[in-house]
Amino acid sequence: MQIFGDYRINVTSGELGGDSGDKVYLSAPSMLDTQYRAIEKSLARVPGVRRVRRIALIPSERRHFELDTLLRHVAEPVLSVDREGRVVAANLAAARAFGVSLDRVPGLQLQRFLPLLQVAELLRDFAVPRYGMPVTVRGRAYQLEWLPIALTEGGAGAAGTAGVESLAGAVLTMQPSDAPTALSEPPTIKALWDFDRRRDCCLQLQDMAALQSPLLIRGERGSGKSTFASALHYLSPLAVGGDCYHFPVADGRGALALPDRWPERGTVVLDDLHRLRPEAQQQLAGRLQTLPAQLRPVATCEQRAELAPALAQYFSSLVLNLPPLRTMRPALARFAGAVLRERAKDGETLGVDAEAAAALALHDWPDNFIGFVDFLSAAADRCHRRGGSAIGLADLPALESRSLLPWREWSRGLSYREVMERVERALLEELLEEQLSTRALAKRLGISHTAVANKLRKYGLTSAAKGNREDPVPQ
What band does 56 get if pLDDT is binned at 50, 70 and 90? Predict the structure, then answer.
């Protein structure tokens, strides 16, 4: 480098390369021909240097130039976004689709052009739709393909275990599409909200998306069965060149209006099969045997509903059980934040204060997300009217405090004390299955370490950590 300094040549960067890693490339963009001729002989006299040659671009610059040229000449819009939904880079086709000049695209919010896509919410959720999402930009229809950019090793799939923190953003490709020709209106694309126990469901759905077998999604009313069913389609390669066909069972009639001829490719969602009459279920099982190989059936039904034997056997290979909202009380505040972000207007998002969040966690939510979303919408309207920035206890509508527990089924013939002791023992037994120490159990229940030890002794139960010296059981 002393030679370059002596001739006042500015070297901006360098790298090693060659087939054997024996070449050194130096970038000196302002070097003149006369300067090169002056240092060429000096560089050749350096020990180990066998040849000195001048090239237009060093390898990294050449790769960047070639990729940039290739991207500019791709006919379909291609762009990348960061985790906040801001455009990082785009090609000329994307700029034309958005109706702005190419130099203005970087830094713009993608949601400005795709207001219904919920870009930021999708990026918070690792199980995002990947293929064939129908979008409209300036009146023109496209199918959007979405490839998450993973920071961890293992590619985009690594986000499944590392979470959204492992994502740098996403690369989007928009392919022009004709007007939709679907036999039915496809479900609205929504984020899955991978909080608490739903995270495992999202991971299972992501794994099942690449398979071919029929899938049955079970859950209580409002637990998100239809949302997961449509998400499966957009996580599946079948979305490329195929549509999502949605056939719900008609309320009150117990009937399902199916087409005379199945489409060739895509996903067919059969919603609420538990409402279908038994004879209609038997007929449906026969029709499903004629599905084309590239058309995957996905069905939903209530958690405890019984399907006809032929239909139950058809959907017995893959079953996804969604947890009810009341089993995810620790994550209710996060679910509330996701709901409020989704309904936010003009970028204004409400929060939920601590007292209101605690009240939400005490309710059992019998309608799950259906009731939860409506409840929060009413609370948000009250908060807006008073000009608040966070939903407080006074904004919450009245809640029915009745719990969804089977009191009458198993408490007949038992006294109040016997009922409470059975509940207490059952609770302790289930928590001990998690291998909790007595101190951890006391913290979980919000009582003293001594009280826990006395209750375990009363029921003849043993903590997994009873013999741990750091966690002695008081006598």
Answer: confident
